[in-house]
């Protein structure tokens, strides 16, 4: 098993499956104080509510003590301390570090100077691998398999890091993708080339409901206002890329809708009560997945 | 005397030929020659069939390791390396682009950690394309040839 969780690229098919297997074991029995003698540092150089609470809940359910900060404002970083010095210091205090940092590549660098495992809880716009693993856990749990699934990915395919990591992680499992986005937010060429090189079939469309009846998973992402130079264009697209319950009538019974959250209006409220809505359960799966990630990095391979 | 040498010959050492004129001083920089104690002669803007204008560097009593000299492949891919013994060329080498690049190049991503903290850059070269592309080990973004900025070696 790997020493850190930095990028989904580092995880092989086997590493992914092992993590999901552990997550399932934690879901069966979510309170397992196996790390009552451990201290976990949760250092967030930029604010994040969901990810930080999810990791800290996971650490607490494992019986570990949590130290750290949720905002770099009150730390020695404001005095000009380098990331290296902060990590050197914290790795002397804690047995594992969960870190979020606004700069791309900060997590990789931290793993090179730390004496304890580092979990990347988001490094700028680069990677957020625990999100990807919980997405995969949600897919596996609802579909019973990760293999040969039809996945429609909708929204901001250009800047959405969860989308890029998802397709890289799913590339181990022979998926078929449909990418649905406005022209401005189309999947970048490097990722289209990546899928072609892996012989993974995909189609692209601008129409939200395209192929919706064939999909096993619909992965929605938020279209962010700041991505548009023209505010009128944003208003138009925001209303076009909004999923509502009337679109779901012909869907496969077991189709599930995922979303990394927070959602704004890309999923209408009337979808929440549908059997297809899975995004809140998905967030809960995050705790089990993060318990699995922590346990594996601290050397526990079976429960 | 039309064929007269414009840069005097050296007895023993290394001659770097076919360096693009506009890259001459960057090559000197990358090889750290500005801190060298060896005798060095160089010239630039010579006529070249291959490059239009070229530069030449001659370093007496200095022989480079392949890993060191290959670092200039990023900016002078057509450079020829001649090893001189007793005024004779005894070996000729062409450059090969190294599979990884440590230092030398700046990552083009302004949000990359290497552009904000004192960290040496580290890239993997992507060779499947005709142009050199560098994948940043830290931020996982690609720096292409058009955006290649060389970090100065000067101390």
Describe the structure.
- Chain A is an alpha/beta fold and 303 residues long.
- Helices cover 37% and strands 15% of the residues of chain A.
- Chain A contains nine helices and nine strands.
- Chain A has helices spanning 13-28, 49-61, 83-93, 106-113, 129-143, 161-170, 189-197, 231-240, 279-297, and strands at residues 39-44, 65-69, 96-101, 118-123, 150-154, 176-180, 202-205, 217-220, 256-258.
- In chain A, strand 1, helix 2 and strand 2 form a beta-alpha-beta unit.
- In chain A, helix 2 (49-61) packs across helix 9, helix 3 crosses helix 4 (106-113) and helix 5 packs across helix 6.
- The radius of gyration of chain A is 19 Å and the shape is globular.
- Chain A starts with 12 loop residues before the first helix and ends in a 6-residue tail after the last helix.
- Chain B has 155 residues and is mainly beta.
- Chain B has two helices and eleven strands.
- Chain B has helices at residues 24-30, 66-69, and strands at residues 13-20, 40-48, 52-60, 80-85, 88-94, 100-102, 105-106, 122-126, 133-136, 142-144, 149-150.
- In chain B, the strands form three sheets. In chain B, strands 2-3-1-4-5 form a five-stranded antiparallel sheet, covered by helices on one side. Chain B has a four-stranded antiparallel sheet with strand order 6-8-9-10, with no helix packed on it. A two-stranded antiparallel ribbon of chain B has the order 7-11.
- Chain B is elongated, with a radius of gyration of 17 Å.
- The mean pLDDT of chain B is 89.
- The chains are: A alpha/beta (303), B mainly beta (155).
């Amino acid at each position: 098993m790997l020493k850190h969780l930095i990028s989904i690229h580092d995880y092989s098919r086997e590493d992914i499956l092992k993590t999901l297997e552990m997550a399932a074991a934690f879901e069966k029995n979510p309170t397992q104080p196996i790390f009552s003698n451990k201290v976990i540092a949760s250092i967030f150089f930029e604010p994040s509510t969901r990810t930080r609470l999810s990791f800290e809940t996971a650490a607490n359910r494992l019986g570990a003590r949590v130290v750290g900060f949720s905002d770099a404002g009150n730390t020695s970083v404001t005095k000009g301390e380098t990331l290296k010095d902060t990590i050197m210091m914290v790795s002397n205090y804690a047995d594992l570090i969960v870190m979020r940092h606004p700069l791309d590549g900060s997590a990789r660098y931290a793993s090179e100077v730390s004496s304890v495992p580092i979990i990347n809880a988001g490094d700028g716009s680069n990677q957020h691998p625990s999100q990807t693993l919980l997405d995969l856990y949600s897919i596996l749990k609802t579909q019973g398999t990760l293999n040969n699934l039809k996945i429609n990915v909708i929204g901001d395919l250009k800047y959405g890091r969860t989308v890029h990591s998802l397709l890289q992680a799913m590339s181990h499992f022979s998926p078929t993708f449909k990418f649905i986005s406005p022209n401005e937010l189309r999947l970048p060429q490097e990722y289209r080339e990546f899928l072609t090189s892996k012989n993974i079939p995909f189609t692209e469309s601008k129409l939200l409901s395209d192929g919706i009846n064939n999909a096993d998973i619909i992965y929605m992402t938020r279209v962010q206002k700041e991505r548009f130079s023209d505010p009128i264009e944003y208003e138009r697209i925001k209303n076009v890329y909004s999923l509502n319950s009337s679109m779901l009538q012909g869907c496969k019974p077991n189709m599930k809708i995922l979303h990394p959250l927070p959602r704004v209006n890309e999923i209408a409220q009337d979808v929440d009560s549908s059997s297809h809505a899975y995004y809140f359960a998905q967030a809960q799966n995050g705790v089990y997945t993060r318990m699995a990630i922590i346990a594996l990095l601290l050397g526990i391979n079976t429960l | 005397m039309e064929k007269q040498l414009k840069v005097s010959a050296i007895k023993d050492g290394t001659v770097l030929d076919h360096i693009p004129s506009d890259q001459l001083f960057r090559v000197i920089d990358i090889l750290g020659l500005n801190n060298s104690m060896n005798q060095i002669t160089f010239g630039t803007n010579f006529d070249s069939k291959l490059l239009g204008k070229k530069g030449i560097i001659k370093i007496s009593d200095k022989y480079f390791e392949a890993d060191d000299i290959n670092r200039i492949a990023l900016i002078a891919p057509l450079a020829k390396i001649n090893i001189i013994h007793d005024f004779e060329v005894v070996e000729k080498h062409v450059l090969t682009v190294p599979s990884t690049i440590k230092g030398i190049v700046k990552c083009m991503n302004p949000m990359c950690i290497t552009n904000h903290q004192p960290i040496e850059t580290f890239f993997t070269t992507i060779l499947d394309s005709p142009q050199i592309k560098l994948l940043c080990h830290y931020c996982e973004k690609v720096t292409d040839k058009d955006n290649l900025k060389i970090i100065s070696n000067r101390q």
